[in-house]
Structure formats: structure tokens, C-alpha cells
Write a structure and sequence with these properties.
The complex is a heterodimer. The model of chain A has no long low-confidence stretch (mean pLDDT 91). Chain A has helices at residues 14-20, 38-44, 54-57, 69-76, 114-121, 134-169, 180-192, 207-214, 216-233, 258-273, 302-318; strands spanning 24-27, 33-36, 58-62, 79-84, 92-98, 105-111, 197-205, 239-242, 247-253, 276-278, 281-283, 286-293, 324-326. By secondary structure, chain A is of the alpha+beta class. In chain A, a hairpin with a 6-residue loop joins strand 5 (92-98) and strand 6. In chain B, strands 1-2-4-3 form a 4-stranded antiparallel sheet, with helices on one face. In chain B, helix 1 (14-31) packs parallel to helix 3 (60-72), helix 1 crosses helix 4 (76-89) and helix 4 crosses helix 8. Residues 1-5 of chain B have low confidence and may be disordered. Classes of the chains: A alpha+beta, B alpha+beta. The A-B interface holds A 115, 118-119, 122-126, 134-136, 138-147, 150-151, 154, 157 and B 49, 51-54, 95-96, 98-99, 102, 105, 120-121, 123-125, 199-202, 204.
Chain lengths: 328, 205
């Protein structure tokens, strides 16, 4: 047998009501306040006076156009959204019901942005009904913030590791110069951007002799020294790479003047020709350089430029080593 | 000893990751970076950092802790209890203390909330392989806390964490970790000292 709930009446004293519904507002049939839940009283502060009119307490955000509590209940069914008029920017959502009998109106409200409300009004545990999920929501917000922060940290650490790996993948470990892979990337980017630049292909002279007579450690010392010279002679925007045993590629950004490029190459050669001392032994090498300019090519293409620089280097070697030849 | 090459993104364990990171923080903060590197080397770990949001081979946390016990000359159980305490008390990890304080207004509420802790943790990290936690009230102010997990560490970490939270709530209690999986907690005085403040609002940084 089903219980007849239609005629069921529940008498509840105001203390119990306050405990179960700390955000309630009880209004008389005219819409004037009869009692406030203790937490709602904290929100409304000085406005929470007995007899205060609903429309003086709240601005109705929805349903649109509603002003009085009767408008709200008539237009919205039983769900509405309010802003307190006291300036506290805490949106409230609620539902309401006219109580049968004397026409009193019971509203129950909740915070739309619980986190902001807890912070702004300094609410405590005791301000929420035990059955309220406020704690769970706040817990979840903090747990989420913690997880997000950890993930952000992880992303930063991974990004750092990725950048280090990328840098390593583009670097020649012996000289600290760029490697072949880096040259290909830089050249492709410059060609795509139709930038002007000079490209030099450099090869050490007599390097094999140093390796054969003084050993590989001396050879490595020479290569490291050449690396330092190239870093000294070129600017940060240029690119110096070791692309093979004693082969180097230099990209001089923005320079097209033949005299300038020739000058840079000769300065590098002069520095490399200076004797280098390794463990008391003198290592003497020189360098030959082939130079091309991007402006000499109708359509700059990395492979064509590299091939031309290679021909220029061959011409330099052929002309007697220790010199720079530009292919016009 | 198996060579462990962490992390294992798809099959590994998230609990191992969290415990490894907690162990790392504890050793770094308490014994310094040299000790931590020695622990990693002893455990055959090439990477010196554990990422809390990744996953590691299940059981790795226990193995690295065994290495820590050898390097630091402390029993592994004591190390894990310290890790649990460190998680709650270290000022940099205020977030953890706050998350636990959401468990309840009083220490006994908090104890009861430990059963909900795995579920709450999964709210934030849905695929976390959380341990099973049960708390039985066996007498007036006497509780038995049990924890089932693939890691030996969890029971000790939980004991250390409860000890630190008792301080936080200002409760005086006796916590005994039994030989099985049972930790006995006797609350002698729930208002022994002033509880540390807990504001529901998240501190703004």
C-alpha cells in the first residue's frame, strides 16, 4: 500500500530549518523576509534584516525581466539566478516554492562559484550542511590544481629535455660547432625565405699529415682549435659546422659583397695557418675555402649551392691550397 | 636484480610513480642530492628524477626504497613512515596537508575519511591504482587501519601520514603498525593541542 503523501504535512522549527538549509530565505506572502539561513545572512551581511523586501536584497539575473519574488516564481517555474545587491559579486542559484496555507514563500539558494564564495566570504565547514557537497567540490578543485601544476612541471621538464636533445642532435661533439644536419636545416630555411647569404665550404690542408705523424689526439686538438677560430671569426647569426673529418661549412648571414666574404675567408685561413702547439709539438695546417653567394643563383636551392661551393673549394685546392676562391 | 628502466607509460603503476616522487623529495630534502644520487645508482636507475604523473614498473618503489635503506643505513619501514610524515609536514607540500584536512573537522572524522581517500584520489586521477583502505572502529577511540596494495610501502606511508595529521589536528594518539597489514590507532586525547588552522579557501599564490 502506498503512503498518501499529498496530504502529508511536516512541521519544522526554525533551528532545524537553519541546520538543514543554511542558505534558505523564508518570505511572507508579500515577499518580505521572515528568516534567513545563517550562511545566507553571512552573504547578505547588513542587508539581512527582518522585513526586507526580496527585490531590495537581490537583483534577478534570470528569468529576465523578473523583479519581485512573485515574478520569479511565476516566470521561472522554480529555478532562478540572483545577485545580492550589497556588492558581493557572488552569483546565487536557487529554487523556491509558495507554501500552501498562508502563502509564505521558501527559497533555497546555493553558490554558483563556490570557490570564489568560500574565499570572498571566508566560509568555514560549519557554514555548509553536512550533506552539502561543498567539501568535495573544494577538494576536487585543489586536487585538480595540484595535478595541473604537476603536469605543467612535467611539460617544462620534458620541453627542457627535448631542447637539450635537439641541441645535441645538431652539434658536433668534438668541436662544439654545428653538424651536417644543422647546416641542412639552416640552408633550407634561408633558401625558403629567399635570404641573402654567403656559403663557404672549407677543407683543412695537411691535416692528414698531422694525424699520421703526431697521432689522432693531435688531430683532434687541431680540429678543436679550428672550431674556436671559426666561433671567434663568425657572428652569432652565422652558422659554422663541421660536416666531415676535416671539412667545414660556413654560412655567413646577410653578406653578399664579394670583398667582404673574401676577407672573412682569408682572415680565417690566416688564423688557421698560425702554428698550434700540442704537447710541445707544433702542428701546422692550412685551409682552402670555396665561396658562393646566394645572389648569384636565380633560384637558391640548398643542393645546388652546396655543389657550387664544392666546385669552388676544388678550384681553391687546384690553385695551390691555403687560399679562398669565389665562384661567380 | 632486474634492470629497471622507468618509466612505463602504458602498463606501469601510478602509485609507484607517486611514492617514488615522495621518496625522492624526502631524501633530497633530508639527506641532500649526493645521497639521492647514490640511492639511484644503488637501485640501478640512470635517471635521477621520478615523474609523479608518469607510471613506473609495479613494485619499483619498494625496490628503490630497499636501496635507500642500504645507502642511508635506516630500516625501510622507518624510511616510508618518514616519507608519509614529510608529505604532510613539509612547507612546500602544504597542498597535501590541505587535501587531507578536507577529510573532516575533527581527527576522528579524518580517520573515517581515510576509507574514502582512494575514491577521492581517483576523482583527481581516475586511472590511479590506489590501494584498498579500510578503517574499523574496534572500541571507544580505537581504530584498526588496513591497507591492501601491491606495494609494501603504502601501509607505512599511511601510518606516517596519520601520525603527522594527528599533530595537525592537535590529537594525541598511539599508532602501532602491526606485523600483518593492520595499523592500530588509539586516540588518547582528541584535543591535546591546538589544531593547525585550516581555511576552506585555497591559498592564493
Amino acid at each position: 500500500m502506498r503512503a498518501d503523501v499529498t496530504g502529508f504535512r511536516l512541521k519544522i522549527d526554525s533551528m532545524t530549518l537553519a541546520r538543514f538549509m543554511p542558505m534558505h530565505l523564508l518570505l511572507d506572502a508579500d515577499g518580505c523576509a521572515l528568516s534567513y539561513g545563517p550562511t545566507l545572512a553571512l552573504v547578505l551581511q547588513d542587508d539581512a534584516k527582518l522585513g526586507a523586501r526580496f527585490e531590495d536584497l537581490f537583483e534577478v539575473r534570470s528569468p529576465g525581466g523578473a523583479v519581485t519574488v512573485h515574478d520569479v516564481l511565476a516566470r521561472a517555474g522554480n529555478r532562478f539566478r540572483l545577485w545580492p545587491r550589497n556588492g558581493i559579486r557572488s552569483g546565487l542559484r536557487g529554487h523556491g516554492q509558495s507554501l500552501s496555507g498562508d502563502g509564505r514563500i521558501l527559497l533555497n539558494l546555493t553558490f554558483i562559484d563556490l570557490i570564489a564564495a568560500v574565499r570572498g566570504i571566508a566560509l568555514t565547514d560549519a557554514d555548509f550542511a553536512t550533506s552539502d557537497l561543498a567539501r568535495e567540490v573544494l577538494f576536487l578543485a585543489e586536487a585538480n590544481a595540484a595535478v595541473t601544476q604537476e603536469l605543467r612541471g612535467l611539460s617544462l621538464r620534458l620541453e627542457g629535455a627535448r631542447m637539450a636533445a635537439e641541441e645535441e642532435a645538431m652539434t658536433d661533439p668534438l668541436t662544439g660547432l654545428r653538424n651536417r644536419r644543422a647546416v641542412d636545416l639552416v640552408l633550407d630555411r634561408l633558401c625558403e625565405g629567399r635570404a641573402n647569404f654567403g656559403l663557404m665550404h672549407m677543407d683543412l690542408d695537411f691535416f692528414k699529415a698531422v694525424n699520421d705523424t703526431l697521432g689522432h689526439a693531435a688531430g683532434d686538438f687541431v680540429l678543436e682549435s679550428v672550431g674556436r677560430i671559426l666561433r671567434d671569426q663568425l657572428r652569432a647569426e652565422d652558422c659554422a659546422a663541421r660536416t666531415g673529418g676535416d671539412e667545414f661549412v660556413l654560412i655567413v648571414a646577410g653578406r653578399t659583397d664579394p670583398g667582404t666574404l673574401q676577407g672573412i675567408a682569408e682572415r680565417i685561413i690566416a688564423r688557421i695557418r698560425e702554428p698550434m702547439t700540442f704537447e710541445g709539438q707544433e702542428c701546422r695546417v692550412s685551409a682552402s675555402v670555396g665561396i658562393v653567394r646566394s645572389v648569384d643563383f636565380a633560384t637558391a636551392e640548398a643542393t645546388a649551392l652546396i655543389a657550387a661551393a664544392d666546385r669552388a673549394l676544388y678550384a681553391a685546392k687546384h690553385a695551390g691550397r691555403g687560399r679562398a676562391v669565389m665562384l661567380g | 636484480m632486474r634492470a629497471s628502466l622507468a618509466p612505463e607509460p602504458s602498463t606501469g603503476s601510478g602509485m609507484d610513480a607517486l611514492l617514488l616522487r615522495s621518496l625522492q623529495s624526502y631524501v633530497l630534502d633530508t639527506f641532500g642530492v649526493a645521497s639521492w644520487h647514490e640511492v639511484c645508482r644503488e637501485a640501478g636507475q640512470t635517471a635521477m628524477t621520478f615523474e609523479p604523473m608518469l607510471r613506473y614498473e609495479a613494485g619499483l618503489a619498494d625496490r628503490v626504497a630497499d636501496s635507500a635503506a642500504r645507502v642511508l643505513g635506516r630500516p625501510v619501514d622507518a624510511i616510508w613512515e618518514d616519507v608519509g610524515t614529510h608529505l604532510v609536514t613539509h612547507p612546500d607540500r602544504e597542498g597535501m596537508r590541505r587535501l587531507l584536512r578536507f577529510g573532516g573537522q575533527h581527527f576522528t572524522d579524518f580517520l573515517h575519511s581515510l576509507e574514502e581517500l582512494p575514491g577521492r584520489a581517483r576523482l583527481a586521477l581516475p586511472d590511479l591504482d590506489t590501494p584498498e583502505v579500510s578503517l574499523d572502529e574496534v572500541g571507544p577511540d580505537r581504530f584498526e587501519l588496513r591497507c591492501r596494495s601491491h606495494l609494501r610501502a603504502t601501509q607505512r606511508v599511511l601510518a606516517g601520514l596519520v601520525t603527522a595529521m594527528a599533530d595537525d589536528y592537535g590529537a594525541l594518539c598511539l599508532i602501532e603498525v602491526g606485523s600483518g597489514d593492520c595499523t592500530t590507532i588509539s586516540v588518547l586525547d582528541s584535543r591535546h593541542a591546538r589544531a593547525r588552522a585550516f581555511d576552506l579557501a585555497m591559498p592564493e599564490h
